[in-house]
TrEMBL record:
One of its GO terms (molecular function) is methyltransferase activity. The keyword Aminoacyl-tRNA synthetase does not apply. GO terms for biological process: methylation; response to antibiotic. SUPFAM superfamilies: EreA/ChaN-like. Pfam families: Erythro_esteras. Keywords: Methyltransferase, Transferase. The keyword Zinc-finger does not apply. This is Protein-L-isoaspartate O-methyltransferase.
């Protein structure tokens, strides 16, 4: 290939991550992306990075693009709480909402196993956590609130029951709720806000501070989920922004809960963690958690790490709620970021953005592949490339020449109708 046009580190073993750990430095928040929700290497290398961040730099928790109630069940398992379950694969069956493969997979099971073993050596307050940042779990969060508050606070439990009752006519279908509120000037906003206020007014619900936090977080999820489902009718930008603002608010609450100096690792799609200001998302009035974190904590305290591949296989569905299937990922499109890296060399590699400053090909917008949970390789050119200024969107990038599909723990999904109105599948 001749002389390299910029410096990079070939990625073949965990020791090669040293250059990335050095670049992360003393950052408080490290966000690890993915170019799809169904690629094995993204999970395994994020696990390797996360292990080192927890062991060597004292990071306190991993927060992922998953629903709060399900991820909190995993959190209780890895921290060894009573009655949290024993077999990891069985606990991961809490992920029943389509697409189940995102978190119910064997790569995540390996992460959970390592977290549990790591935590077994530590006191309760020193154990690394696992949490969900997403906003979809309206009914699950409401039910958890009622179940817990019935034993601890009757007044707050009654407010939660009223909120559930308000949603009952919609048969647990956010699609029905979104459409109904678009044409009728009635919704359940008042009920969920009152429930949220009742929960927040209570100082403590018991002797378990994390369970107390869980109850308050479920109330916040329910309030923001109601807002999100109403916003779906208003267009892609408004619902996207409600979702990413909620994820940022949850991250902020988790850092506050874990105390001054706490550090967070975030696992989400590149479209969420890569600063939206340096993509065409900004033209559509959209922001994301990567941008919000940089704005709140300062760019020096946040490290955004993108992931991508040239070709391989992936798990995805042909439509919302469709059965998952293993699909081929074709060679990256001509003129894309991934094709550029392929032409540089076929090495798997770590690229630091500071080493791209003098590379003319990436100083302006370049197409950057993004595969969602819905994917059809035949139509990839019509919507799977995000125009991106790479050195500004990320602080570092992990490139893989060829990747393979993630390995799902197979189970039947529920909620297949739910995403029909979603304008984005990241």
């Amino acid at each position: 290939m001749g002389q390299k046009p910029f410096h990079y580190t070939a990625l073949t073993k965990e020791k090669d991550l040293d250059v990335l750990l050095q670049e992360i430095g003393d950052a408080r928040v490290v966000m690890l992306g993915e170019a799809s929700h169904g690629t094995s290497e993204y999970y395994t290398w994020r696990t390797a990075i996360s292990r080192r961040l927890i062991q060597e730099k004292g990071f306190h928790f991993i927060a992922v693009e998953g629903d709060w109630p399900e991820c909190y069940a995993v959190n209780r398992l890895v921290k060894g709480y009573p009655n949290a379950g024993g077999k990891i694969a069985e606990v991961l069956e809490v992920y029943r909402r389509w697409p189940t493969w995102m978190w119910a997979n064997w790569e995540v099971a390996a992460l959970v196993e390592w977290l549990r073993e790591h935590n077994n050596q530590r006191l309760q307050g020193e154990k690394a956590g696992f949490y969900g940042l997403d906003v979809y779990s309206l009914w699950e969060s409401l039910e958890q609130i009622v179940h817990y508050l019935e034993r601890n606070d009757g007044q707050a439990a009654e407010a939660a029951r009223l909120a559930i009752n308000c949603f009952e006519p919609f048969n647990r279908d956010p699609q029905n709720y979104a459409r109904a509120t678009a044409f009728v000037p009635t919704d359940c906003e008042r009920e969920v806000i009152e429930m949220l206020q009742k929960v927040q007014q209570q100082r403590s619900f018991g002797n378990d501070p994390e369970q107390d936090f869980n109850t308050r977080q479920n109330a916040l999820v329910a309030a923001n989920a109601e807002k999100y489902y109403r916003a779906m009718i208003g267009g892609s930008a408004s619902s996207w922004n409600v979702r990413d603002s909620h994820m940022m608010e949850t991250l902020d609450r988790l850092l506050e809960f874990h105390g001054p100096g706490s550090k967070a690792i975030v696992w989400e799609h590149n479209t969420h963690i890569g600063d939206a200001r340096y993509t065409d998302m900004a033209d559509n009035g959209m922001h994301n958690i990567g941008q919000l974190a940089r704005e709140k904590y300062g760019r020096a305290n946040v490290r955004l790490v993108g992931f991508g591949t040239y070709q391989g296989t992936v798990i995805a569905g042909k439509a919302w709620g469709a059965p998952m299937q293993k699909m081929d990922v074709p060679p990256a499109a001509s003129g894309s970021w991934e094709e550029f890296l392929h032409k540089v060399s076929t090495d798997d590699k770590i690229i630091l953005s500071k080493d791209l400053k003098q590379v003319p090909e990436v100083q302006d917008y370049i197409g950057h592949r993004a595969i969602g949970v819905v994917y059809d390789p035949k139509y990839e050119m019509f919507g799977n490339y995000v125009p991106t200024i790479i050195p500004e969107r990320y602080d570092a990038f992990l490139y893989f020449e060829e990747t393979e599909a993630v390995h799902p723990i197979r189970m039947k999904s529920r909620g297949a109708k739910e995403p029909d109105l979603y304008p984005w599948n990241y």
